[in-house]
Amino acid sequence: MTVLVVVPTYDEAENIERVLENVLNAQPQVDVLVVDDGSPDGTADLVDAMAQSDTRIHVMRRAAKQGLGAAYRAGFAWGLERGYERLVEMDADGSHRAEDLGALLEASQHETADLVLGSRWIPGGGVVNWPWYRRWISRGGTWYAQVMLGLKVRDLTGGYRVFKRATLERLRYEEVVSQGYCFQIDMARRTAAAGMTIVEVPITFVERTHGRSKMSGAIVREALWRVTVWGFQRFLPFGR
């Protein structure tokens, strides 16, 4: 099983070296692609320096900040072109623990697991050092998406995931325009709508200790708006 871990970055110089080292120590067989959106703090330069001595590390430099969804679309395309069988979404800030990756990859080997989600909100999962309002946004966002979209997934907004190659090829992921949390919800709903199976594996999410979160009001508003539209489209004739 060939695995590519796709890590979008923007101003993650304080975290990226440690994150890559942890991933490659925990899972030496994987490759990592850092998709950097023109970070002014030199994130891509640090990754380039690591890549000089480690062929498992790759970097894609993009000219400007284009958003999480666009970064993952670019990373998926890069990985599919090179024949990877599993493509992993992973944050660059250390919140996704490298020691949880093995369980996600193991679950993805099951024939019926088309998409594996690292879930904070199932037994065995959890969060560390999260303020109450972040918990509320995450759990509230998942609940609203569950109701509007008819999905039973317990953690729709999480970004630690493993896609099978065949799953991405069927999803037409290149057409997804959503960003942030909404990108994660969108990919999950498309997987379910295609009749594919989503499996959740417990993870522990650890709040970043360096740098600033990319969470913003615009990200929350986009998710709320798009999920509402998708929800109405499920029931109204003109949305079918």
Global shape: globular
Classification by helices and strands? alpha/beta
List how many beta strands DSSP finds. 9
Mean pLDDT across all amino acids: 91
Query: Roughly how much helix do the residues carry, as a percent range?
Result: 40-55%
**What is the helix tally?**
8
Describe the overall structure.
By secondary structure, this protein is of the alpha/beta class. It has helices at 16-26, 43-51, 68-81, 101-108, 132-149, 165-171, 180-193, 217-235, and strands at 3-9, 31-36, 57-61, 86-89, 115-119, 126-128, 161-164, 198-202, 204-206. Helix 7 (180-193) packs parallel to helix 8 (217-235). The mean pLDDT is 91.
Spell out the blueprint of helices and strands.
Elements: E1 3-9, H1 16-26, E2 31-36, H2 43-51, E3 57-61, H3 68-81, E4 86-89, H4 101-108, E5 115-119, E6 126-128, H5 132-149, E7 161-164, H6 165-171, H7 180-193, E8 198-202, E9 204-206, H8 217-235
Parallel strand pairs: 1-2, 1-4, 2-3, 5-8, 6-9
Antiparallel strand pairs: 4-7, 5-7
Helix pairs in contact: 5-8, 7-8
